[in-house]
Structures are given as structure tokens and as C-alpha cells.
Amino acid sequence: MLFGGGLPSPWTFLAHAAALTRRIRLATAITLLPLEDPVRLAEDVSDVDTLSGGRVEIGVGSGAGEQEYAVFGRDVAADVS
């Protein structure tokens, strides 16, 4: 059984949602920081936040288990330590 979201890049989706809306908050559930490039993530978040007029919220974490890392062919012990 796999857990987690279904969007490989939620920031592309949220940028589109920002263009179609004016008031809703734009947010992720939990972004697994060890699986992201920190500079690219910061750029994506800041771009969507700017385009949306400051409506972005981001949830971050390190993950709950091995399944979240296995999907990307990564070893949880190597990424979290």
C-alpha cells in the first residue's frame, strides 16, 4: 500500500489554481524535505506565493515511513540522517 499525495509537482498545479482564483489559500499537505532540492523548492514556493499575492501555505516534514522513500528509489536511512 502506498501513502501520500498524487501530484509529483504540486507547485505547477497551485500556480494554475492561483491564476484561476483570487481568495482561496493555496497549500500543500506535507512536502517531504529530504526528497526535495532545497533551492528549487524555495524558488517554486516563492514564485507561486508571488503570483498568488501571498496566498501560499506549505506543510513540511521528514516523512512517516519507508514507503514514502521507496516510491522514489531512495533509502530513508540515508536521506534522513
TrEMBL record:
Pfam family, one: Bac_luciferase
SUPFAM superfamilies: Bacterial luciferase-like
InterPro entries from the UniProt entry: Bact_Lucif_Oxidored, Luciferase-like_dom, Luciferase-like_sf
Domain Luciferase-like: 6-77
PANTHER family: LUCIFERASE-LIKE MONOOXYGENASE
Protein name: LLM class flavin-dependent oxidoreductase
Organism: Frankia umida
